[in-house]
Amino acid sequence: MADGRPLYVARPDLPPLQDLLPALEELWQSRILSNEGRYHDEFEAALASYLGVDHVSLVTNATSGLLLALLQAGLTGQVITTPFSFVGTSHALRLAGLEPVFADIDPISLNLNPESAAEAVTSATSALLPVHIFGRACDTAALDNLAEQHDLKLIYDAAHAFAVNDKGGSVLRHGDMSVLSFHATKVFNTFEGGAVISNNAMTKAAVDELRNFGIIDEVTVSRVGMNAKMNEFCAAVGLLQLVHIDDNIAKRGIVDARYRELLANIEGVSCLPAMSAQTQNHYSFPVLVDAGARYSRDELYNKLQKQGVHARRYFYPLISALPMYRHLPSARPENLPVAHDIAARILCLPMFPDLTADEQERVAGIIADAAIGAV
Ligand code: T4K
Predict the structure, then answer these.
(1) Which of 209, 270, 340, 371 is 20 to 30 Å from 24 at the Cα level?
(2) Per-residue pLDDT tens digits for 308-332
């Protein structure tokens, strides 16, 4: 029997409703609801300043952002990517008419392994599409080098990497473009939303055109584009969310530290090591069920589920195991041993700023009982 409120893997942060009401009133009065209005432009500028980057293009979600970035990069043929991600990463490639080529991941960062990526480069490769998974930054130095060495475009799926910095500043400055998600389940949300971060003004201008059908003015359409514009409501929410984001990330940090303490002496599960050379946004709290544990990952998932704790097996199954990708030569399991091992053992526990100490004890208690075979 579940005890207390159901605990989902994510719980969206929201600004106080009374803070949103004046913006709503203004929206209702102005009747400007979309197409790069006042809130859109204010949010874009505020975000650039908060993130410490120069060129931000707001979009409807990260999937459309990835598609725009891939189209703008003018890619052909194959793009090397990770199988250990949300399916949206590879779907964006397919939607852009490109073939994903899967390379294995690093067992510590869980990100695309630069050495495996290097082995996958062929004359048909036009780009790399790594993911900063769970907000843990990729080995950007190695990937930047690899792209340069083979004259490849480098686009980072940064859906999880809001406010992640390395020693040189925002991780979003690496590569040609990076794409953020502001979906409800993310560290920073605008209900639905996202942004493309470009490394120069010309690229930003091109992405801005592409997200608005290629329209330049009333009589000029420069190219084939789509509709990926963020509306005024989402932009107004985004502006208000920025006020609380540092506080929310700090609260996530407390939740993260508490889990580490509570799980430290429980047999059979291991926390991922913290990534020392970067700031963490505590996007998620993944644990790995040890190979020799008394319970399997799926048994633990089911035990938690029964008690109202809705942990998630992100990212299982691997993208490369899905029906539309598994026929690809790079999708063979023997090509991706680390990704298969991690996908079979990973479990993401509930992680959100207002998760209480009692609730975390409840989660850890179920895992501790599983460890001694008590549930
Ligand atoms: N690249 C990567 C690496 C990504 O992870 C994602 C998305 C993308 C690209 C594409 O980004 P977007 O195009 O979405 O901007 C969720 C999200 O829909 C997806 O955005 C996210 N990654 C992925 C990791 O998770 P589901 O199908 O697992 O979510 P769902 O609906 O089961 O929600 C998980 C839990 O969160 C629910 O059990 C309850 C809670 N929840 C969810 C929503 C939507 C809430 O409490 N409130 C809510 O409004 O995909």
Answers:
(1) 209
(2) 999 999 999 999 999 999 999 999 9
